[in-house]
Design a protein that fits this description.
The complex is a heterotrimer of chains A (252), B (334) and C (290).
Chain A (H helix, E strand, L loop, with lengths): L3 E12 L2 E12 L3 E5 L6 H9 L6 E6 L2 E2 L5 H7 L1 E4 L11 H11 L15 H13 L15 H14 L4 E5 L7 H14 L4 E5 L3 H7 L2 E6 L2 E6 L1 H6 L1 H6 L9
Parallel strand pairs in A: 3-8, 3-9, 6-7, 7-8
Antiparallel strand pairs in A: 1-2, 1-4, 4-5, 9-10
Helix pairs in contact in A: 3-4, 3-5, 4-5, 5-6
Chain B lengths: L10 H16 L2 H26 L7 H15 L8 H23 L4 H21 L9 E2 L5 E4 L2 E5 L3 H24 L1 H11 L1 H7 L3 H27 L1 E2 L6 H14 L6 H19 L3 H15 L7 H6 L19
Antiparallel strand pairs in B: 1-4, 2-3
Chain C lengths: L2 H32 L6 H19 L2 H22 L9 H23 L15 E5 L2 E4 H23 L1 H11 L1 H6 L4 H23 L9 H16 L4 H21 L4 H15 L11
Antiparallel strand pairs in C: 1-2
Helix pairs in contact in C: 1-5, 1-8, 1-9, 1-10, 2-3, 2-4, 2-8, 2-9, 3-8, 5-6, 9-10, 10-11
The chains are: A alpha/beta (252), B mainly alpha (334), C mainly alpha (290).
Chain lengths: 252, 334, 290
Amino acid sequence: MAEIALHARRLRKQFGGVRAVSDVSIDVHANEVHAVIGPNGAGKSTLINLLSGELFVNAGSIMLGEVDITGLAPDQRARAGLGRAYQKTTIFPRFSVHENVRLAAQARSHAPLRMFGGIATNDEVNRRTDAAIAKAGLAGRESIVANLLSHGEQRQLEIAMVLATDPKIILLDEPLAGMGQAEARAIIALIASLKQGRAVLIVEHDMDAVFELADRLTVMHDGHVIATGVPAEVRLHPAVREAYLGNHGDAA
Amino acid sequence: MRARPRLPSWLVPFLCLMAAVALPFWVPTYYTQFASKALIMGMLAMALNLAVGQGGLVSLCHAAFFGVAGYVLALTSPKYDAASLLLTLPLAVLASGLAALAIGALALRTRGVYFIMVTLAFGEMLYFFFHDTGIGGGSDGAFINLKPEIAIAGRQLLDLDKPMAFYFVVLAFTVGVIALLLMLVRSPFGHALAAARDNERRARSLGFPIFRIRLIAFTISGALAGLAGYFAAAQFGFVAPEMLGWHQSATVLAMVLIGGLQSVTGPLLGALVLLGLEEVLKANLAQWKLAEGLIVIAIVLALPNGVRQLWPLLFGQPRQKPSSGKVAPETGRG
Amino acid sequence: MDLITFGVQLLNAIQYGMVLFLVASGLTLVFGILGVINLAHGAFYMLGAYLAYWIAAATGNFLIAVVAGVAIAFVVGLLLENVFIRRLYGRDHLAQVLLSFGLILVIDEVREMLFGKDVHAVTPPAWLSGSIQLTTNLSYPVYRLAICVFCLAVAGLIFLVITRTKIGMIVRAGAENREMTRVLGINYDSVNRYVFATGIALAALGGIVIAPISTVFPGMGDSMLILSFVVVVLGGIGSVAGAAIGALLIGLTDTFGKVFFPSVSGILIYLLMALVLLWRPNGILGRREI
């Protein structure tokens, strides 16, 4: 069995009296894309926020490799090797593409808050910046101010920023949302290439893309995990067909 | 875009510095003193802009840090003797920095409009501290009879009681503050601070410790405000609680806005403009505050990016790139 | 401290808190609904007190001063919203801070031109000017009790309007989600205008009712502004109920602080604020976020 990059055990989160996530356990393996699917309100977004640290769990534990990150703040989790891209594109709109990615690389450098000297003097940061830009397919677009990019390119930039932090696991929240067919193809290919050397967890509504990308699936419903496994198994799981996939007919 | 050949980037700052050095030899003492005052308020405004412009933290308590340093000088000055600058200046800056650290640690738990209200309230707390307790003469304030001096083994090297000497010391510190701020703004730290301003959530998820970054910036900003406050107290020879009041903080914010938040030196220009304006209004108008209020309102409504917006109108072509971002390396011109 | 003295101090604290609530609720409404931070709020409190003095002196009737003062403040509020404040919607906080600071300078100077800068006293109406004898050497002014009753009535009215009426619903919806109300086709411009004017009128009303038991002086708006800010920070921005809690807390802290810890009483409310910030950075009734 492959190495487990992220191991979440019996996570619970409630808002007031409502349990958004209850008893959710999930193992994300290295070198795999793991997709979380489920109908709206199933608790997928809450789960991703619990993993990235923007929400804290009421119960349960999260291990990143050998490190217990349950009590860590989002920035501490990021430094521990957890990278996250958001559903709504959240880049630094006034910065150039290169600036955006360089900032991300800087965050994981040895002296991220150095108070003297220029910003381009750290070779390690420069190298990771250039590599992430190239990998995300933005080479040649470095000097463009981020909010002038197309929607698809902004998602590429978002992924480049996550890559530049050199994460062990990448969390992607609906990376294909609001995207045209051609743009989506490029992003899907990019995501598929991300899993080499790291783990990828993705929440996505586009079933075709999910079944194309995912090595492993977790299906959520009403805050619970109702099935988890490789796509072929999950597809046939009776609870899944009833709860969710039935609605999508032959997409499953 | 640029039809005319570009001036070398060091030329304008160099000419400004030359003009500043030559100034006291050409104008009457009154204007040398006025220039000292403008530089001091410019230092304060530039210090504040590290928090406001670079950090996105609209603070309404920087006058308190300014005033704390002034009080430190007043309290450490012997009655019939000059205080030692080398001793009292670091002490004053330290006190202001500590005050900023304490207030920042609490206020930075909040965001946006909360932050404004909380800084205002804590600033007023310091105001009432000096107003209500007997420290530093209560509401009457305290005098600093002799300006601080630099003396070694009893021999006076520098006498700040001479307006020209005072001016050059203040000018030197102003240049130092500009250099320090430019270094900070262009460093990885400055970029992280700007990133937290533009998108806090993203900056945090990249791994930047937002609270710590902002607290460091706020503390440095407060300490530099203290530097300005020390010289302000030395120049007037008097401190009073009003020095810490929030009207003062708001006035300095107006200087920052007038000069523009986008550059390190903009607020210095803003201080010069606002003080010059006050000087003219006071001389000609009984209701000068009415005029000043209306002018501040007009600037907010008409020139949200400061008086530099007038440049293209006055000279027909933009002298600088439009202020789209502050990550551009030439942030600190003017 | 015997029971009666304690009772008297408690009444003082409540009365002080109620006036604070009037002023602070105006501030929190304007911020919660318009998203505008108004530093000139205290200046309208001061203006209200001067109006009370001026109208009461001219007419000899304090009740006229209350009604006319609030009406004048309301109209001034409508006017200012139309000329200045509407240009601030959507602008950053810095612009709001500085524009309202400019307004303070203007209002101060206008006040000086109209009323001068002297300190004044206002006499309460004769039928409220007596005192209730509590013990042989302790009495409590009727006017202070009347303030309590009056402010409670106004507070009740505010709650009724916010919880029971269509306007109140719009107001609450607007505080939650401005876009939503826009989609629903609500005419935001007119709501904005009346909300701002109401906020100003509440500040002025606070100044009017306080005038007979305080002195009327130019700097009175400044300290009130700070106190209102502390109230809003304590209670949670946009929450009228939070403003009520915050105002009573400040009233109690300040009044009993002056009794028990006279030397540090000026600092106490800020310590209270610091504690609340450590405990709940978004205020007692503010939304909890990370």
